[in-house]
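Progress report, Aim 2. The chain analyzed during this reporting quarter is listed below.
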Amino acid sequence: VQLQASGGGLVQAGGSLRLSCTASGNIFNINYMAWYRQPPGRERELVAGIFRGGFINYGDSVKGRFTISRDNAKNIVYLQMNSLKHEDTGVYYCNAQVVGSRNNYWGQGTQVTVSS
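Predicted structure tokens for the chain:
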């Protein structure tokens, strides 16, 4: 499984960005895709995830501001980020899992920088 993330950049506080993650390869059994982030000097944390059945979970700090969605036909997962705050700054990683197995895949990170 290969994950290609894009869409990061520099934005002012209050602005918006949309991240995209395209999955390819042996993705048949992938049943959960998510975005994680790693702020400077901190551990990686869940931002949002979406199960194959449509259930969605969000990290507490992004609820009401971020929206995860997917295009199954194109194997793309999006993360729409609105009302960005300085504390949203970090490297954002796309993740794909076969939940209940050891199959856990990561894309390269994409930098998001929010200026205050």
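The mean pLDDT is 95. The radius of gyration is 13 Å. These observations will guide the mutagenesis work planned for the next reporting period.
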